[in-house]
Structures are given as C-alpha cells and as structure tokens.
Amino acid sequence: MASASAPEVVVVFDFDRTIIDWDSDDWVITKLGAADAFQRLRPTMRWNPLMDRMMAELHARGKTPEDIRDCLRSAPLDTHVVSAVKTAAALGCDLKVVSDANTFFIETVLAHHGVLGCFSEIVTNPASVDADGRLRISPFHDPASAPHGCSLCPDNMCKGKILGRIQATGSDKKRRRRFIYIGDGKGDYCPSLKLGEGDHVMARENYPLWHLICDNKQLLKAEVHPWNSGEELEKTLLKLAGEVISPPAQASQFDYSKCEMSNPASCPPSCAALITDQLLVRKY
Ligand SMILES: [Mg+2]
Ligand SMILES: [Zn+2]
C-alpha cells in the first residue's frame, strides 16, 4: 500500500487494443455480420456517427442489445491485463479509462471479467438503449456546443482535453500526483503531450502512438515505455507504479534507439502484417 506521503498514481488506460487486444467496434460489427454495411458506409461517415448507424443496422437485422452484450462477452481479455488492473488498484492507484469506444461496450467487457469496480471513472462516448430497443451511441463532445478546437483529435472526442480535466480535478490537492498513460492509437497522442515531467506514457510498440512519439521525441515531457503484450503491459505498469510509490535511487531512461529499430520496413513479416491490419481498422 502507498504511504500517505507518496505521490498518488493515476493510471489512464485507453480501451481498444490496450486493455483489450482487439477493437470492440470491429469485433461487434464483424461477429454480428454487419461488416458489409460497415465497408459500404465507411467512406461517407466519420467513425462516431458511423458506429451509431451500425447499431441501427444491427437492430434492423434483428440483433438486440443483449446479443451485442453476449458478443462482447465472448471476446478474450488477457489474464495479465486483468491481473495488472487488479494489482494496480490494490496498490492504491486511481484507475481510469479514457476511450473512443462507448459506455455499453466498455462496461460490458470490464464487468464480465470482474474488473469494472477497479476503475474510478470511464470517460467515453455515451450509449443507451432507446424505446425501440436499439443501442444508440452519442458523441462524447456535444456537437451542439462549440467545437473542442483540437486539430489532433476527432470531432467527437479530444482525449487531451479530458486528461486536462482529470489533471485539474484531483481528489486531494495537497498530494502530488503522477500519471501513467497507456495507449496505442493516434487519439492517445494528444493526452500524451499534456503529461509532465515525472509522468509516464506506455505506448504500444509499432502502433500509431508509438510512431507519433518517435517522430516528435522532443515534444514529450513524460518518460516513454514500450510494451508489446499483456504480459509486458503488466510488468511495466507495476514496475512504474511501484517506483512512483517507492522511488529507486535512479530511474531508468527510455532508449530512443528502439524507435529506429522499430521502423516498419525492418519488421519481420508477422510484425508488418500487424501494422497493416492496424491501419485498416484505425478509427481516425
Ligand atoms: Mg486504442
Ligand atoms: Zn486533442
């Protein structure tokens, strides 16, 4: 347990391809047989309204919100990630999810694996079931209000703005706080830029966030740590959280030479396939 004088550790998780090793939107649409409609509509719609539209497609095909829940429950969650979440919560870290998926998908998955209660907050696009029994997905950022004004992020959500709000509204103002942000995607870059010295970004290696960080190394104040699997995520998160709570004599430095080593052109075929797959399903 953390001592009263140790900094509070706030761990912010992205959801798709971070907590889960898959993409929840992609999983539901593909498994419930609406990939054809997705492919047809994708060129004409932005991601967030497209997901609401896809829920209408599923409803028209007789799929209920309970079918969607069952579909999400059938997807795997790495046992190392479950253990990382439980252990970090037990250490006294404040865990949050900031995601461009939606409340229905995220809460279903986390509850199914018994870790929903480990998170103090889930910040994502709102979802609800309407009178017709159709799942509706709304943008996190109210389209009726002024645009959020961040050119890095999609219209419906700026994760950097969300992180700024979390940074500004600490539970205990007297206690220092250290942030650990874990993500993989383009949308995770904006919040990474908002972190300060002493904070940490855990970027999934060879995914868009990692490449953006490597391309603009000097822009980040936080320390960067790569991870490749649930096992590495667990190991790195618990090491960092432990170091914040009981600092070692000297913190290890991120080896930026790994950025050069992770150039997609030099990847083995399996790695290159992963990157191609990622680009196809990327949300924005
Ligand atoms: Mg992600
Ligand atoms: Zn932003």
Description:
With 284 residues, this protein is of the alpha/beta class. It has a single domain (8-281), classed as HAD superfamily/HAD-like (Rossmann fold, 3-Layer(aba) Sandwich). The chain is 43% helix and 16% strand. It has 13 helices and eight strands. It has helices at 15-19, 24-31, 35-41, 47-60, 65-73, 79-90, 103-112, 159-168, 189-194, 208-215, 230-245, 257-261, 269-281; strands spanning 8-13, 94-102, 119-125, 127-129, 135-137, 177-183, 200-204, 223-227. The protein has a six-stranded parallel beta sheet, with helices on both faces. A two-stranded antiparallel sheet has the order 4-5. 38% of the residues are buried. It binds magnesium ion (MG) and zinc ion (ZN). Zinc ion (ZN) is lined by residues 150, 152-153, 158, 160, 190.
Q: Which architecture name does CATH use?
A: 3-Layer(aba) Sandwich
CATH topology: Rossmann fold
SSE string, helix = H, strand = E? Answer: EHHHHHHEHEEEHEHEHEHHH
Bound molecules: magnesium ion, zinc ion
Summarize the SSE layout with pairings.
Elements: E1 8-13, H1 15-19, H2 24-31, H3 35-41, H4 47-60, H5 65-73, H6 79-90, E2 94-102, H7 103-112, E3 119-125, E4 127-129, E5 135-137, H8 159-168, E6 177-183, H9 189-194, E7 200-204, H10 208-215, E8 223-227, H11 230-245, H12 257-261, H13 269-281
Parallel strand pairs: 1-2, 1-6, 2-3, 6-7, 7-8
Antiparallel strand pairs: 4-5
Helix pairs in contact: 5-7, 6-11
The chain binds magnesium ion (MG) and zinc ion.
